[in-house]
Design brief:
The chain is built from 6 helices and no strands. Helix 3 packs across helix 4 and helix 4 packs across helix 5. The termini are far apart.
Amino acid sequence: MAGSRLEKFGTVFTRVRDLMRAGVVKEKDKPIWYDVYAAFPPKRNPLYVKPHWKRVQKTEDNVPEIFYKEDVIRAKFYETYGNGPKVFDLSRSTFVSTCQRFVEKYNELESSGGFEEETLFEETSKALLAEGILLRRRGGPAVAAEHRHPVLGMKLTDMLAEEQQANATADETTPTTAVQEQTQTQTETPATDDKPLS
């Protein structure tokens, strides 16, 4: 129990003094500092005083938001394309994300000065497509679908409808020509008797 007491229930000096008075600590076993402390006591006793916490009202930190030019480009990239087609590979220290490549290409095209501010974002995505990086819009087709082969743009339902239409027109012409061929062959061949030959 004595080990659970802390300095807030008296000073170390008063506790040692009381232990000596009770006979727990012998006079010969007293600490070296005891006589010095008794001869020169401090002006204020080092008592534990429970700190009184004042309720401090929260002050608002007026830290301005810091936005870099790249942050605006990145925000627009993630809004338009999401995370991009590749997964972040954090195990390689030389990995460059699709977003970072986009920002670098954007800055490169902007420094060349050949594009207006409104079209620069689209031109950057087209330039990355030319480099082989395919960007897909959220919920939409790939960027610059007009550069793809027209066969890739066809829908399966359209192709099936065209095929069925071609088959239907072929079926309509086939029976009439077959009937015409039959009538021609009948008129050309003479009728023979069906008598058995003996």
